[in-house]
Every structure is written in C-alpha cells, then in structure tokens.
User: Fold these one by one.
Assistant:
Number 1:
Amino acid sequence: MNRWFKNRLTAVAPVCQQFWHTAGGRDRKHMGTVGKALDLLDLFTRAEPQLGLSHLARASGLNKATCHRLLSELESRGLLEQSGPAREYRLGPAVLRLSALREAAVPTREAAMPVLRRLAEATGETAHLSHLVAGRLQMLAYAYASRPGVKVMMEDADILPFHATASGAAVLAFGSEMETLISASPDSETLRTRVETTRAKGYAETLSTFEKDVHSFAVPLFDATGTCTGALAVAAAAPRLTPALHATITRELARSGAEITQLWGGQPPTTGAAL
C-alpha cells in the first residue's frame, strides 16, 4: 500500500467510523444490513490489508452466505476489490474518493500537519494527532523528527486505547461524559487517578503503558464549543528523556496544541483546562 493511499485512508477513517458505530455499537443481532456491511470494512487494518471470505465471516460473526452477499455489494460500489490468486478482498478505490471529499470539507489533517512537523523537529521525537470519533480515539496523522536515531514508530489509522495511552488520558480528562469509558477500563481506579492528575497538570503523561520504554505526553484539542475532540501527543524513547527534554516537550506540546485548536476554529473551555 503506497504512502499516498495510506494518507488518504487515514483521512477517511473518521467518516467511516461514524457510520460503523452509530447504530449502538457492535450488537449484530439488532444491526441493520448497512451496519453489518460497513462493520466488515472495520476488519481491514494495516497489519491485515487483505482478507479472505472465511476470515471475514469468522471475524464478523456472519454466516458465509450473508458475508459474501455483503462483500459483493461493497465490491459493486467500489468500496472493496478482490486481488491475487486467492481473490482476497482489500479496500477499493471508492475509499479514495470519500477521503478526498472528507479532507476538502473538513481539512483537519492538512491544517495540522505543519504544526505536527514543527513539534516533531522541536522535540526531536515522534509527534502524533488523534481524533475522537463515535467513542473511539482514531489516529489521524503523525510526524517523525529528521534527526537520526531510534524513533517511536506509528501505524496509520490506529485505534488508541483510552486506558493505556497519554492521548486517551488527555481526552478522558477534558472530554464530556467520559465516566462510562473510565468505568469500563480494565483498571478503572488507576485510570481515574491518571485522569485526575492530567486534569490538574493540563497534560497527560504515561510511561510504558502501551509500548515498552516509550514515554508519552498528550494535550487535548477542542472545537468551537470548547468540547474536546482529540489529542496531540509526543512519544519519546524513555532512555533518552532528560529533565531538559521533558521541559521542552511539555512546553512545545502546549504551544502546538493551542495552535491546532485555533486552526480548527476551536477554543479551550472557559474552565477545566490548564493549557
């Protein structure tokens, strides 16, 4: 999959996620045909960009006949295509059109990229941006510092877990109606403490909670109503994090988060944010 396609897929993912989760989650017993079809698209990932019928049927919980009918319909609309001797399915060219329309209408990714690149260069670490969509935190973009050395690597269109990432803690700390997500965490008390600390400091900080030896920092991003819509983060290799680098990251992260919020036409809430 080439980089242009991956970037377009990253941009369209929030649109697709809204459709995939609007009908009350993943209760397939009560899910309509459209929900089941779009739910199949959610099974394609960077790690598994091509999937066969048997895999899709098993992973979706659908019988093969129903799964094949839905896949055929998605293929006829260009959302999927078949490839290779095994005729496995992969995302089709219609995804690119949706991606372009999304970015043209709401250019969140392109507006933020210059800031993201400057943040990566200023800190010498990996910077990444995530967006809250339908109760999930979706990776939107990332940038690497140009300096040589070990880098924390990111994956396109990742879903960031709330309980194990600095981005998740930042969104939970400054988001609305997040108690349900905290209560559903594998360790709700630890997460609640992290969220309270994040709210007090104005930024989230985690160490080796998602990836070993990765020290992460994140700040919330807001829309025009002051609602938290995502997070901006820096992921650093823990062994090289000095007090001076720590100070640089938190300073630059706060500055960049405020800039992206402004570029998106947003504003921090009048209370509750320490940025």
Number 2:
Amino acid sequence: MKKWFTAFILLLVIGALAACSSDSSGEKAKESKEIKIGATAGPYSDMVTKAIKPGLEDLGYKVEVVEFSDYIQPNKALDNGDIDANLFQHSIYLETFEKENNMDLTGLIIVPTAPMGIYSNTYKSFDEVKDGATVTIPNDPVNAARALNTLKDEGLISLAEGTDPLTVSEKDITENVKKLKFQPLESGQLPRSLDSTDLAAVPGNFALAAGFDLLTALTLENMLDQYRNVVAVKSSDEESQIAKDIQSVVESDEFEKVIDEQFEGFGKPEWMKK
C-alpha cells in the first residue's frame, strides 16, 4: 500500500513539473513572437508606430520599429532578414529595385499615402493663374508624370489620347491653356522653389518634410495605386502568419480610424474605398 502511495505522489509531482514546463514553453513561445518593421523616418515610421504597431501588439507581438534615413537600406535589411517588413516605397520603386539588386520582395498591401500637391504662394485658386506662369515640377520621369497628370485633371493642360499615365512627359502635352512654363527641379528643392515660382508640384513626402499642411494645396493628385506606398515582405514570407497578421491589421477599422484622425490628406487606396 505504501509503495502505491509513493508511486501516486511521484505521478503528481511529475504531472506538476510537466505542467510548469508546458507553461514555461508557452511563455517562451509568446515571448518569441517578435517582429521588426522598417520605415523611413517621418510620416511612414509614424504610420507604423501609430496605426500598425498597436494592432500587432493586440495580437501578441512585440513590435520594434526600425527607422532608416535613405531609400536603399530598408530593402537591403529586408532581403537580409534583419527586418520582417518595411514601409516606405511604392510598387513601381519596389519592382525596379528588386530587379536591379537581384532580390525577391513582394508588396503585401497598399496603404494610404501622402499625395503630390500643387502649391502656390501667389495664387489661391487655379482661376487666378495668369498666362505664362512658371511651374516647378520634379525632374525624375515618374514624379514628373504625376505632376502633369494632376495639371491635366485641373484643366490646365491636355495630354495626347492613349498616353500611359505612368510614363507621360512634356512631349505628350497637346494643349497648354495658360501657356505654363515648366521648370524641372530635384524633388527636395521643390518646397523652397515656392519663394520664386508661381506653382510647385511637390510630392507628399517632401511636402510633409518641409512642414506643409497637405490640405493647403490648391489641389491634391488623384493618385494611382501604383504610386501609393506598400508594406513589403520577402516573397518567401508572403504566406507567413506574420504577413497575414500585418494585412489583417491594415485592413481593420482601427487602422482606418487612426488614418482619418492623424493622417489628414493621405489618399486611400482603392481597396479602402469599397
């Protein structure tokens, strides 16, 4: 009888130890649920911190936001596995960068993005624009096309029918109602150009960096989704649980609420308008 009692006690002790071990393993698994998201310093690191990080934390993740100061290192860090995802680039840039650098990255989901705006210290509306006014526009083909499409939407210029809006250039202008004079500049110089020009087409990230309120633009571009920023991951991780959880957070009502309250003027992607 005493032997059976001793055996029973041993079983209880072993069971208790197993339970403790199980609890400990569970805690370790929970603690290892970590994620690093890279973003360029500014509005998109803010978006990760304010709109994405809280939702992931609610799912049990420990989230680290890694800030970058250029447009090269975030993709290198992602490709090397130093971070799990990044947010700073649109799909056109992503596709070009990965091909040129032999990477295999994927845009997971499009997020609201600061649009290009037409700003002026001279005019309060396009109706006031005088003939021969000077417009500074980005000197790179992608952003120059965005500027021309925006001016077309406002009726200031006409573009040749059938022109691809992603590749349109000055040579595609068929009518220039106000006889606008175009002055290409590096995007970083466009905000400062307002002191000496009539109109300036400023990409959203440069406008925000210069302290502009997006809503003070004479108009904001009707942005194509190809120009909106994406959360990117390695293609091999596209179906991972982390990727699925990031996507679910971005698609949540809580994410949209933060965007509406703290990112005024950011253009929403088509999927958010449905």
Number 3:
Amino acid sequence: MKYRKFADTDIDLSTIGLGSMGMSFSYGEGNDKESIETLNYALELGINFWDTADIYGVGANEELLSKVLVPNRDKIFLATKFGFRTKDPNIGQVRNIPGDQMYIDGSAKHVKEAAEASLKRLGIDTIDLYYLHRVDPNIPIEETVGAMAALVKEGKVRYLGLSEADPENIKRANAVHKISALQSEFSLLTREVEKEILPLTKELNMTFVPFSPLARGLMTNNLNVDEIDEKDFRRNLPRMNGSYLENNQNLAAGLAEIAVKKGISAAQLALAWV
C-alpha cells in the first residue's frame, strides 16, 4: 500500500481509503458479516483511512465500524461527518431515506450534539477528521466551523474537513480554523472540481479526498444496472438511465480496452487515474 502525508501533518494515510456508506446505506441490502470481513481485510492490506458519517444508516454504520475500529484504534485514521438530519426524529436505523425527508443542520448546537453522538456510537474518545457533510445554506459557515473548532480545543476532534463545499465557503471556513481536508466526488466521469476546487486545495495545503472514484461503479465496466437492487439509490441517478447510461457504458468499455492492454482491470486503471 502506498501512503501520502495528510495535509500539513506527518500523518501517513493510505492512498486508497475505505468508504463504508454502502455497508449500511443507499446501496440496497447490506450484510454485516461480510462488511466486518471487509473491514478486517482492509486492515490487512494496510488501508488506514476509513470514512463514515452519522447519516449512513442513521448511526448504524458508525456502530458497525466500531466493532473493528475499537480493538484496532491505533491502526486507523477515522473520518466521520455530520450535517444531514432526518425530518422524522424517530425514523430509526434505516438504509434508505428519500432526499425530501432530510435537511442540513450546521447550527452550533447540532455540531456539538452530533459529535457527542458519533463518539458514543464509534466507541472512541477522539474523531481524527470531522467533516461538515454539506454546507448549511441557512447558517453562516463561520458559525458552523467555529463550533467545530471548539471540538478541537476540547480534544474531541483532531482535524476539520468539509464535503462538497464551494470555493467561497472553503475560504471563509479556513479563515476561522484550518480546514485540513476537502471531500468531493471525482472520477473520470465527474471532473467539475478540476477548474477551481483542486487548485484551491493545493493553495491552502488541504488534502483532497475524492469519493466515488469509480463513478458509482460505472467505471468497473461490469456493473449491470438492471441487476441493481430496487432500493439502491443509484437507480434514480441520471448517469444510470437512458442516453446518459449508454454514453457512460461506452466510455467504460473504452477504458476497459486500455486496461486490458496494460494487464489490469478497468477499476484499477480508473483508480490509478484519480
């Protein structure tokens, strides 16, 4: 496994991280036994950068990761996120939530409450990297990051991050407290961050963390959309339907042809590109 320094620290993080959303949220039915096996295998491979969020399974994913995280705490750099909330406070731990049944809460009050809840579910004392999952359009970013910074002072969080933030909010947030990581979708099919976001993260010495580097599975060239679980949110993505899907499948097939010549899989080539 290859490693890179995290932001302006001496921390070595695996270049390939472990995103765990699909284990508990959005991607059809889950299997906790297989997920635990995957988590342990990731450790064996040297993957030390793990990612979760409180909305994934409405807390279920954090609890799942804790089973492997707690006994291996010194081997894992754990990132989690807050911000998304359900309109129904009694919804329970579910795998699928309609978009119109969630909202963003970046209030100082929720920052503190969410962090405390995540720490309890994870079974740890400190979160390594705490992301604001999405910027709250109704709360100044300064208020949200100010509350996040207080968590750092209290020793409950080590580093702060943002997810899917625009350049203006990134700059404003970084002016309040050092933002060490910016997470956004990035793949051969999703490249909007190249124009402004990537140059800005380099300028501010932030680690850029790409999610969905395989374009939700399309870049593997072996995703059969017709076989995706009915509850899988990808069924409703424009890229997975109609002419968009046909075009994307053609691109994936072209990538696979190049990969064959190099003696690797399409997925390996797509990840290497990122």
Number 4:
Amino acid sequence: MKAGLGKRWKSAETGKAQKQAKRGNRQSAETGKARKQEKCQNSKSVETAGAGKQGETMGEIKVGRMVLGMCQTNCYFLYRDGEKQTIVVDPADKGINIYNALEKNGFLVEGILLTHGHFDHIWGLEELKAASNVTAQTAGREPVKVYVGEAERLLLNSPELNVSERAGRACGVTADVYVEDGDEITLAGMTCQVIATPGHTAGGCCYYFKEGGFLLSGDTLFAESVGRTDFPTGSMSELVRSIKEKLFLLPDDTKVYPGHGESTTIGHEKEYNPFCG
C-alpha cells in the first residue's frame, strides 16, 4: 500500500483508473472491465489477467502478473522461457484461482515468496499452497515452501498486525523458511538475493534477480512513490534509508516490479521519486 493514501485501501493507480472509467470512452470501458477481472471474483478473471500479462522477457526469465483483490495487488509468477516450474510472489487473494490459472497453462508452483505479511499480499497463500502441494505429492515432488523475512514472523501470524482484522477478513499464516538480508534462494532454476528493506513493515524484503536484471520490491518502492508506514511496525525513516542505502545501490537499469501499480527502474526512481530525494 502506497504512502500518502491515508486510510484508503486502493493504490493511486486504482483511483486514477476509476476516474478514467467514468468518462465513458472506449478505453475507459476496457479499463473498467479489466478492473472487474482483476478483483479476482472468479477463476476466469484470474486466468484472463494471468494470460494477458504472461511473457515479459528478462533475459531467460519471464515475469507474469495477476492484479488481484481489494487493493489491486500485483501477484507475480516467474518462470524460465520454455519451462513450467514457477515461483509465485505475493499471492494476494483467491489462491485457488491463482492455482487454476497457472495449472491451466501447465505451470507447476515450486515455491512462494512473500515480500511482507500484510493481508493484501497473503490472503491467497493457504489455498495456493494447499492446492500446489496436492499436485506436488501426486508427482512425487518436494512440498512447496513459503519464504519471508525473519523479522516478519510475528506480523505474518497476527490478524491485528497484518491488518487483516481491520480489513474485515482476519487471517494469520506462517512460512516454512524465514530469510535474512543477503540470503540466496534458488527455486525453479532461478536464483535471487534477499534484500531486507524494513520500513513499510519491520520484516519487509525485496528479491533481486541479478541474472534477469530485475527487483521485486513489494510495498517498499513504487513508481515515483513508496509504501505507507502508518501501519504496525512501519517507519518512514527506515523505509527511506532502506531505499537509498540498499535499493539505490543496484544498477540504474534494474527493472523494478512493485506490489502495486506499474513497473519502473532504479535509475528513474533515483531521479524522480519525491520521497527519496
């Protein structure tokens, strides 16, 4: 969730799309249709979102996206070109629909990465993991594991701290692997580095795929914005420090895939992000 939104749940991009939808032209009508699909009200909408975003190439790694739930959260799935093993990042909502969309396209979930533990990034976790593990067991594969920052352990399992209670659907989940700054994770033939970025939450982290030249930034860094820090364990000073002292050390051409909204680059944010000047 972005900074500067007060108590609003939706991202700035969502609000902009809603205004466009009211104008009545063809483009806004298409935007409205997409928004309904992205809210993940049924499996067809997830399949459409997943298929529509599938195939942005980053070297040999491809990044797919589904936009899900009340906060229009980006749920990413990563895979190597020509391969079916995939990593899912932040299963925002309706986990069985995420699973069905991936399964329909032949994908097998090998692991799940969480950038942090807020409700709009975990509501689909348990369903996705359960369905994926049934498939894994049938195929004689290792169980699917969930990865998250070590300092996020308490928040992840607390409906009060992860804000799910306030959002109207209390939940608490656990991970299988709690990672720390500098750890490397290899899944589905892809390796990423964990970058601990406290600020949005105490245990928030980003995942840097050096080979592909991209970063999954969660709610730490957005296109010309940053994550809000008025929820439990948040700190604006820590957030800005994490961005400037860690993320801004990455190459300028690093593609940034945030938890909400469209992608950006490290170079663009160093020059234009008003929160990190």
